[in-house]
Amino acid sequence: MRDIVIGEEFITLSEGRQIRFSFIGRKRIIQMYAVGGMFFDLLINNLIAFDEKNKIIVTDESYNSNNEALKQLLILINSKQPITFKRWMRYLSIPSKNRRDLYTKLLAKSDNSEAARERIVQRIRAELLEPEQVTVEIITLSLLLKSSKLLKQYFSSYEVKQLENRIKELKQNDHKRWKDIKNINKEIEFMDAIILTSAVVI
Length: 202
Hints:
It contains 11 helices and 2 strands. The protein is mainly α. Strands 1-2 form a two-stranded antiparallel ribbon. The longest helix has 19 residues. The two termini are 30 Å apart.
């Protein structure tokens, strides 16, 4: 697996930037986006999957890495009966020690320097503009940036259009992968509504 996770890179790019307004507050919404990025990481690395009822299941319990945040999230998922990602959003949005612990571990490893931000932005830009197929990691990170209203703070209208074209390519070339990514992304996009209407104790 990669040493740097999507959640860490999101934290780096959100530092000092104006993020999408949320009634749950800036601090918690950033935490939720970062944890959502971790679900993307687990999915991309085939450590979790969606079952026939659209619930998240652990597919590889043997994951062993120095990344404590990803290990903790995988253990948490495995400790519960399979639930949908929407219900994970509800579970982690309430006053949650798990969410805070996961975010603290991500924050400890993230590099919030200007140089680190520039490296991430240049890597995204290079993939968007190169003729080769863009990586799924770049697409999922870009989707987080788009949902949080950070994307246009870093990229031009032309580059954002290129991202949309790359997403279309993924839909056409790897429909199953896109379907799984969409299952997570659509709930992240409507996170506020999910939290607002949540009255379920999980």
